[in-house]
Structure formats: structure tokens, C-alpha cells
Amino acid sequence: MILLNDRFVPNEEARVSPEDRGYYFGDGVYEVFRIYGGRMFEPEAHWTRLARSAQETRIALPRPIERLREELEQLAGMEQIDTGTAYIQITRGAAPRSHPFPAGVRPVVYAYCTTLERPLASIRDGISALTAPDIRWLRCDLKTLNLLPNVLAKQAALDRGADDCIFHRDGVVTECVAANLLMVKDGTLHTHPANRLILGGVTREVTLRLAKSLGIPAVEEPFRVDALMRADEVFLSGTVMEITPIVRIDGRSIGDGKPGRLTRELQRAFGRLLPV
Predict the structure, then answer these.
(1) How far apart are CA 144 and CA 29, in angstroms?
(2) H or E segment at 79?
(3) In terms of Cα–Cα distance, which of 93, 38, 33, 36 is closest to 69?
(4) Selection from 234, 175, 223, 222 nearest residue 199 by Cα
(5) Is the pLDDT at 93 greater than 90, yes or no?
(6) Does the active-site annotation cover 143?
């Protein structure tokens, strides 16, 4: 089933206008929720981020966040999702193609849920990554539909036998394709500050909260690729990938080439939050 505007319809009956500005301009925002044990994980943080993305892009929500939340939870229940994701997208609406905001159009809501198991093998063994220049726009803090640079970077990494891509701006590490990046050096956790150059991840905030509870020092400051390559541990954090170690970057092992001790501690602490 699909939530389309204010109706639940079968997937094959869902129709969106070809004049939707999401197609023309990527003029929309979205959010992805993890579902564990049939329940949304950290829902308040996701809804707050969606509201902020809509406000900053000047897309008027068609109804209050509280109502959208009820509808998405109802959809997840209809689909009987135990472990999976929920996706919601809001575009500015349908109008003839023209750059200025159209007057009198209604934003289009589109949402669906799907079963998706936890990436346990990657969490256990770690993944590899490549570094690449961050050529994206300068409002990465907004979760918009403009993801073509991310798509190209992900495919370039896969084409070269890696699992993900780590972006950097003139040598300063920002984040991964669809997740935040954190590294450990001499017992301290390092990650880029949550400013306009990265998307402030919900799982990133959970990870920093867990680090504090475990007594792991954390620093939110920019660091460079050369520091990354000398890290003792590196991992990404994201809604789908949770806390996943990165054990090789640009063909070189990080630390001893295995998931590190603090990464494992944070994974265990994260796992204790889940109803599974």
C-alpha cells in the first residue's frame, strides 16, 4: 500500500502528475525511518528533521506533523512491517514547469513501507570505502531529493570494488553517500560538526549520546583525509546501516584491518536500544 496525499491506495493504483516539481527540479524533501520490532526508531528526531527541511525549502506541510506521523504509523501497521523502513516524501506540488514557486498548488505526499533486514554481515565484518571530492551543493543539512551526486559516487565506488564513498571538500572529510562518518584516534571519537556541509544524522546523534554514556570522548571538529587514513578505527552511522565499521579506505587497511574495540562497544550499546 502507498500513502498518496491523504489516501491509502494499492501500489499499482498510485498516480503522480508528470508535472510534479519533484520530477522537474528535485523540489522536495524526504525522511527515512527505521522500524524495529514493528516500531519506529527515534521518530521524534526524524519528524523534527523533516519539518526543518520543509521549512528551510519553504514547502508548506499539507497537514500537521502529528497527523503525518499517525498516517505513516498506520501504513506500517497495514503492511505488518516488523524490521524494515518507512519512507515519506513531500514535494512542492504539481504545476507547469517554471522556476519560481507556483501559487495555489498543493504539496504532494508520498509514503511507503518495506521490509529490510539489518545488515548484520557488514556490521560484523566491516566494509570498504573510497574517498572522493565532495561536489555536492552547500546545503547538505537539508534532506532534499537532490541526490544525483550521491548516486554517482555510490556507483563509482561499487564499480571499483568498494562498498561506499567518503566525501571530502579540499581534503576535509565530510560524510559518506548516505551516512555520517566517524573515526577513532587514541581513544577519542571524531566527526565533522553538524553544519551545512553534512546531514545531521539521527543515528549520528544516537552514537554521540551512547559515546557520552560510555565515557568515550567525542570531538565534533573537521579533520582531513590524511588524519582519516591514520585513524585507529573508522565507522559510518546511518538509519539503514546503523553503526558499520569501515576497515579499508582507498585500498589501505584502517588500524589492523578489523572492526575496532570502541566501534564494537558502540555497536553493542546501540543493539541494546533495539526491541529485537
Answers:
(1) 4
(2) none
(3) 33
(4) 175
(5) yes
(6) yes
Per-domain boundaries in the chain: 2-115, 120-271
- At the fourth CATH level, which superfamily is domain 120-271? D-amino Acid Aminotransferase, subunit A, domain 2 (3.20.10.10)
With cell 519560481, the residue in question is 100
Residue with cell 561536489: 135
Q: Which residue in 143, 154, 212, 258 is the catalytic one?
A: 143
Report CA-CA distances (Å) from 262 to 96, 216, 222, 234, 247.
Answer: 53, 8, 20, 10, 14
* pTM for the full predicted model: 0.95
Closest CA to 165 of 121, 197, 135: 135
Query: For residue range 5-32, what is the model confidence (pLDDT) as tens digits?
Result: 999 999 999 999 999 999 999 999 999 9
Q: Would you state the cell numbers that stand for residue 124, as one nine-digit string?
A: 560484523
- 217: DSSP letter: -
